[in-house]
Design brief:
The protein is of the alpha/beta class. The protein is built from 20 helices and 13 strands. It has 2 domains: 272 residues, Inosine-uridine Nucleoside N-ribohydrolase, Chain A, CATH 3.90.245.10; 170 residues, 60s Ribosomal Protein L30, Chain: A (2-Layer Sandwich), CATH 3.30.1330.130. The N terminus is likely disordered.
């Protein structure tokens, strides 16, 4: 009997260690007032595959809600995360006194932001809670205004929100900025029944948190998130602003991943976490920005990036493809073409399409439903193999449907949290690929090795040259 119990416990531990890597540990809604530290915190949360940012809301504080909305939306657009919804506090939009440095800080291209599309905070939170059944964490990077309004106005908020994580100077520090943006909301939220985790900034007057070594380490990371923070520190605005070099709101992103790096004090329904391991916190930040907070594969730790590992025609483009499009697209491309058993043009298109869809919503794999219009006849149907590898939406998971009852085309519908988009390969590329394949078939025939050699050559070429941000038409359905 003892032996059976031991086996059961061992099996449980093994399943825990090797459980599904794309079920994030943290589903969050983030509220911000547009502070200069918020861009770092939000960027880190977006960078981690172990966090799913369901929505971002903006409240008045450092900036007005209008200006904070522009900052947040431009940041998401710069990462091509257009599908993450952003809400705005429409009942209280004015800031008492906007901070000039925060106003000058560049998060992205604000000229592309359309304010008319902004939903109200309460409407957005209510919609998210209605479709996402996983318990969520509500992160307040500024005031408690939005959290308090949601508690009063949305019945499901009390049931669905497992915790409030608040970046503030301390539970008993009533003089701090975030506390006093909306003092009434602060007082009320510290007395209600949802647990409140207060995360404090790193304080050491003898230490510059973002020193040259840390900033230099961030600059070597090849992800869009690390590049954004590097740009932040390279800006003229930041260089002359000492507060930007402190470890403040971004401590929240570190805390939810690695709470053991903090000194945690609990008093009733309120806990207070103080950064205590400087070296560990900095190392963890780099890990988050690299996207290494959770394992990405199921059997192998990682695919080699050494060009010598690959065939002679593929090796020369390995580094360039990874540098241009990221490790996710490269890994998906390798696995998809091995699954497909030859390097295919539409397989590559499917890979890029799937990565773009995941990027749009900033999801992992297995998180949305896909309906492909590529049909079941090659070469167009080859797109389905690339699509399912890059998204995890496979027939085996019941997440991929292939339509054969309509006109086939390189297009896919994606549904995530009741939000539907359609990605379609641009017509000029469809014509270019189709014409080439027809010509190869006409001249050499499908049974010719020359046909497949030409297809392989084109597939490698398109893998390198086609930027997934430029080759698809994306429609809100």
């Amino acid at each position: 009997m003892k032996r059976l119990i031991f086996i059961a416990v061992s099996l449980f531990i093994t399943l825990t260690l090797y459980s599904h890597p794309w079920k994030p540990s943290h589903y969050v809604i983030v509220d911000t007032d547009g502070g200069v530290d918020d861009i770092k915190a939000i960027t880190m949360l977006l960078a981690s595959p172990d966090v799913r940012v369901l929505a971002i809301t903006v409240s008045p504080g450092v900036l007005s809600t209008e200006n904070a909305y522009k900052k947040v939306k431009s940041l998401l657009n710069s990462f091509y995360h257009e599908g993450i919804p952003v809400g705005i506090n429409k009942s209280n939009s004015k800031s008492k006194d906007e901070f000039p440095v925060a106003l000058q800080t560049i998060w992205g291209d604000e000229s592309r932001v359309n304010m008319e599309q902004a939903p109200g905070n309460m409407k957005l939170i209510s919609e998210i809670l209605a479709v996402e059944k996983t318990k969520i964490s509500f992160i307040s990077l500024g005031s408690m205004t939005t959290a308090y309004s949601a508690l009063k106005e949305i019945p499901s908020f009390r049931k669905q929100v497992k915790e409030i994580i608040w970046s503030v100077d301390g539970a008993v520090d009533t003089k701090g900025y975030n506390y006093n943006i909306d003092k009434k909301a602060s007082e009320k939220m510290l007395k209600q029944e949802i647990p409140v985790h207060i995360v404090r900034k790193y304080i050491d007057t003898d230490v510059v948190f973002y020193d040259d070594e840390l900033i230099g380490s961030i600059s070597t990371i090849n992800t869009v998130y690390a590049k954004k923070i590097t740009e932040f520190f390279n800006s003229v605005t930041t260089k002359n602003h000492g507060f930007s070099y402190e470890g403040t709101d971004e401590m929240v992103a570190v805390f939810i991943h690695y709470p053991d790096l903090f000194l945690n004090k609990v008093a009733g329904n309120i806990s207070e976490s103080i950064p205590s391991d400087l070296k560990g916190i900095k190392e963890s930040m780099l890990r988050i920005l690299k996207g290494e907070t959770v394992g990405r594969n199921q059997v192998i730790r990682q695919l080699p990036v050494d060009p010598s590992f690959y065939f002679e025609d593929v090796g020369p483009v390995v580094a360039e493809i990874i540098n241009r499009y990221g490790i996710d697209e490269w890994t998906s491309g390798v696995i998809a073409n091995e699954l497909h058993r030859h390097l295919g043009i539409y397989t590559i298109v499917g890979v890029k399409m799937g990565i773009r869809a995941r990027e749009y919503f900033n999801t992992g794999v297995d998180e949305f439903r896909a309906t492909s219009y590529a049909g079941s006849i090659s070469p167009l149907s080859c797109m389905n193999d690339g699509l399912q590898v890059s998204t995890g939406a496979t027939p085996g998971h019941g997440l991929l449907t292939v339509r054969n009852d309509t006109v086939t085309r390189p297009a896919v519908d994606i549904i995530y949290l009741n939000h539907k988009i359609r990605l379609t390969l641009k017509p000029e590329l469809i014509e270019k690929i189709s014409s080439a394949l027809k010509e190869y078939n006409f001249v050499y025939g499908l049974d010719s090795n020359i046909y497949w050699e030409l297809v392989r050559k084109d597939a490698i070429k398109y893998w390198l040259e086609l930027d997934r941000h430029e080759i698809f038409i994306i429609e809100e359905m």
